[in-house]
Design goal:
The complex is a heterodimer of chains A (212) and B (10). Chain A has 212 residues and is mainly alpha-helical. Chain A has one domain (3-203). Chain A is 71% helix and 2% strand. Chain A is globular. The N and C termini of chain A lie far apart (44 Å). Chain B has no helix or strand. The relative contact order of chain B is 0.33. The chains are: A mainly alpha (212), B little secondary structure (10). At the A-B interface, helix 1 and helix 3 of A face loops of B. Chain A: The chain crosses the membrane at residues 62-80, 92-113, 119-139, 151-172, 178-199.
């Protein structure tokens, strides 16, 4: 565990908490893509199957449980409790266009062809693109509430911090995982446009609004 | 052992 990894994990945790607070406080999930949230739930479940096979540390186990539980809590709030506020019409991204290619890619490019490893690899590929329905929703509506922007910023920062963690681990431990590094780089690149808008607008107290 | 890969990250 190094400082980048810890900061990345905490940023990830903060993102999830911000999202739950936004939905709970405003009693609304307007502006949040349920499609992205479904994809994140698929990511956590397929990645953390090793909860039952491998024990790494108490920290690791607890964080995995928090990520899985909170993602299902988010889905419950969006699709059951505050269903009426869900922005159906704008959240029209077809997730099968992400799920299928990621699965095929995981079957083709993986570290070892075992069910757990293929599912882990699938989750890494899917996580890289899981935010696309959310970014698509923001671009369709042309704006995002400030707490939604903070959520997206924390969520994007997490993988960017992991990139620093991987650089650190390569030099400090000789450890590297090319699949995670490439997918993590793509994931971070997808947020760049948003990062730019966040820094130039939201941090200056303006609403995140896309140019018409 | 590549077959029993341990993923220690989240």
């Amino acid at each position: 565990m190094n400082i980048f990894r810890l900061a990345g994990d905490l940023s990830h945790l903060l993102a999830i908490i911000l999202l739950l607070i936004k939905i709970w406080k405003t009693r609304s999930c307007a502006g949040i893509s349920g499609k992205s949230q479904i994809l994140f739930a698929v990511v956590y479940v397929s990645r953390y199957l090793d909860l039952v096979t491998t024990f790494i540390s108490l920290y690791n186990t607890l964080m995995k449980l928090v990520f899985i539980t909170s993602s299902f809590a988010t889905l419950y709030l969006m699709y059951v409790k505050f269903k009426a506020t869900y922005d159906h019409n704008h959240d029209s991204f077809r997730i099968e266009f992400l799920l299928l290619p990621c699965f095929v890619l995981a079957l083709l490019i993986n570290a070892s062809f075992t069910p757990l490893e293929v599912l882990w690899t699938f989750s890494i590929y899917l996580e890289a693109v899981a935010i696309l329905p959310q970014l698509f929703l923001v671009s369709k509506t042309g704006e995002a509430e400030s707490i939604t922007s903070h959520y997206l910023f924390a969520l994007g920062s997490y993988r960017a911090l992991y990139l620093l963690n991987w650089i650190y681990r390569y030099y400090a431990e000789g450890h590297y995982d090319l699949i995670a590094i490439f997918a993590g780089a793509i994931q971070t690149i997808l947020y760049c446009d948003f990062f730019y808008l966040y820094i130039t607008k939201v941090l200056k107290g303006k609403k995140l609004q896309l140019p018409a | 052992n590549r077959d029993q890969q341990q993923h220690d990250e989240l």
